[in-house]
Structure to design on (299 residues):
């Protein structure tokens, strides 16, 4: 039986990874930010020596996209140096490393889904720092390092777009939402299941090391995504109004196209994540309860 170590265990994805491992009966240790600083080589080596994991899942990340524009060095420490430290420790111990990355490593101007080997060209500080982490893992662990890019994550265990829209539906007559950014809403519970299957496949040597894409099938815009949230709430989707990115100027540029392809899973026994609409419908009761409390009902 394998043992797993999950960094960033206090976050939305980390919680769901630990939950999935528990359901599957896999021994796992969660290390939240207060427990383990992934930029500290001595601390990371000590953690791996103490727990002797066969698989390390790195969910620790600087996720403040706009904040990274002003504090790129701080973001780079977490998103670039941290993965390098983990990769070095995993190389010494022989552990498999699953590292979570992002669609922001691409320019975001494509017209068809990005392949796993598509050229990277980040346009933001956040994207640059995440790409540094990818390169560190792939360089140091060519046989046991797995980079999993994801996008548009939501879940019950933390703040996210779906929970924000649930809250705003109750206090706004109308909502203006951008319709010129396309992506793949991805439930953290679905991604957690994929990561567990990937880790087990990595241990069994049935999935080669390298880059994988962990997003839902299908694609949509933030506008259409919000309309689906309203529909699940029992609210009128007509209250959601189209707008463009020009109406929401942010410090960091947002990709207009964040759709990731899943061809890399071919030849393995791992299926890509299901369609985003199916996942959202299943996830919605827990999201609604997390945002509004037990007994909450739709609008």
């Amino acid at each position: 039986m394998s043992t797993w170590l999950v960094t960033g265990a206090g976050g939305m994805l980390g919680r769901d990874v630990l939950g999935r491992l528990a359901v599957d009966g896999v021994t796992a240790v969660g290390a939240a930010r207060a427990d383990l600083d992934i930029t500290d080589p001595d601390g990371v080596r000590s953690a791996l020596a103490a727990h002797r994991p066969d698989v390390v899942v790195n969910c620790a990340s600087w996720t403040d996209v706009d904040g990274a524009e002003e504090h790129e060095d701080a973001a780079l420490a977490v998103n670039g140096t941290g993965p390098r430290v983990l990769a070095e420790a995993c190389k010494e111990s022989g552990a498999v490393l699953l590292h979570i990355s992002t669609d922001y490593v691409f320019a975001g101007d494509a017209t068809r889904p990005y392949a796993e080997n598509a050229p990277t060209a980040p346009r933001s500080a956040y994207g640059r720092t995440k790409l540094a982490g990818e390169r560190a893992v792939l360089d140091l662990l060519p046989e046991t390092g797995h980079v999993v890019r994801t996008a548009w994550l939501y879940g019950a265990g933390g703040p996210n777009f779906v929970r924000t829209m649930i809250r705003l539906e109750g206090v706004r007559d109308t909502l203006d939402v951008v319709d010129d950014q396309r992506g793949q809403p991805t439930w953290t519970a679905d991604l957690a299941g994929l990561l567990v299957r990937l880790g087990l496949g990595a241990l069994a040597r049935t999935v080669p090391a390298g880059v994988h894409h962990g997003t839902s099938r299908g694609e949509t815009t933030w506008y259409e995504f919000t309309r689906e949230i309203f529909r699940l709430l029992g609210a009128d989707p007509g209250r959601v109004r189209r707008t463009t990115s020009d109406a929401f100027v942010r410090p960091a540029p947002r990709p207009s196209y964040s759709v990731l392809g899943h061809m890399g899973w071919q030849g393995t026994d791992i299926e890509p994540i299901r369609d985003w609409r199916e996942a959202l419908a299943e996830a919605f009761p827990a999201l609604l309860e997390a945002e509004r409390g037990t007994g909450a009902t739709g609008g």
Remarks:
- The domain at 3-159+184-217+260-274 is CATH 3.40.50.720 (Rossmann fold).
- Residues 294-299 have pLDDT under 50 and may be disordered.
- The CA atoms of residues 110 and 257 lie 6 Å apart.
- The chain has nine helices and twelve strands.
